[in-house]
Design goal:
about 270 residues; alpha+beta; Arc Repressor Mutant, subunit A; Glutaredoxin; five-stranded mixed beta sheet; about 35% helix
Length: about 270
């Protein structure tokens, strides 16, 4: 059970929360990083964490809970030291993502959103992380591990459970713990260097091929502006040299007394 925030912990959270809300014209815009902040303290978003966010931002606990339960990066129960996510969205699944998840589930003895008894690994199916070029992809605390196989994925989790470090395919030069990464997502750098490449060979091959072949995208046609009403309905000349707007009612017969609003003779009202 998580105790109410007090003492040094409360003071630390309040100072960090002030730094977060100061980034935004409207402090309530800081709710997402603030939820990552309380998760970095407790290992998941607790009831007290939700209450703290609500008090800090002047929101109701229901409003904060609605956000915390919508995004899967916020955990509502304790998470392992390493959150291992296997993408099983369409492309990764076709390329072997389902087989990777099934292998890890059997190897670790846990299912989706469950944690090993030693608290080291939480396993989950994740949606697309915009890394389809490198399918199938596995993530450890949101660091990329590209082109995985069931065997390589099992080796990674075994290494982590043994307390040894693994190196992501792209991104930082190491993997932080779940709570450390939550603090990074709250907007506080952790000093890890070596951000490495953002776009690898599979991402850039199309651009290189286009340059080699001299391919260029065709110019987009310039859209003509839509015609105005005057262009759609040209003004017709009126005998006598005057021109009348299309909205001008027709003149009454000579000697007539047409109503100026309706253009009709009084006898037409009967």
């Amino acid at each position: 059970m998580i105790e109410p925030y007090e003492g040094d912990k409360l003071a630390r959270l309040e100072a960090d929360a002030a730094a977060i809300t100061a980034r935004y014209p409207d402090p309530r815009s800081g709710l997402l990083p603030l939820l990552h902040l309380v998760q970095s303290e407790d290992g998941y978003v607790t009831g007290e964490g939700i209450a703290f966010c609500a008090r800090t931002l002047g929101l109701s606990t229901a409003e904060v809970s609605g956000v915390a339960t919508f995004y899967t990066q916020y955990k509502r129960h304790p998470c392992g030291t390493y959150n291992v996510g296997v993408c099983t969205n369409t492309l990764c699944a076709i390329m072997g993502g389902d087989a990777i998840f099934d292998e890890l589930s059997e190897h670790l003895g846990i299912g989706h959103d469950e944690t090993t008894d030693d608290g080291a690994i939480t396993l989950e199916r994740i949606e697309c992380n915009a890394a389809c070029d490198y399918a199938p992809v596995m993530m450890v605390n949101w660091e990329f591990f590209d082109h995985q196989t069931p065997q390589s994925a099992a080796e990674i989790v075994d290494t982590l459970r043994a307390g040894d470090q693994v190196v992501p395919t792209r991104g930082a030069d190491s993997v932080a713990s779940f709570t450390e990464m939550s603090r990074v997502l709250a907007g506080f750098p952790d000093g890890r260097g070596g951000e490495g490449i953002g776009a690898g060979e599979p991402t850039l091959v199309g651009l290189r091929l286009a340059k080699d072949k001299g391919w260029e995208a065709p110019e987009l046609p310039v859209a003509e502006p839509p015609p105005t009403r005057a262009q759609e309905e040209p003004v017709e000349p009126v005998p006598g040299g005057e021109q009348s707007s299309v909205d001008t009612p027709a003149a009454p017969p000579e000697g007539g007394t047409a109503d100026t609003e309706t253009g009709r003779e009084p006898s037409e009202e009967a």
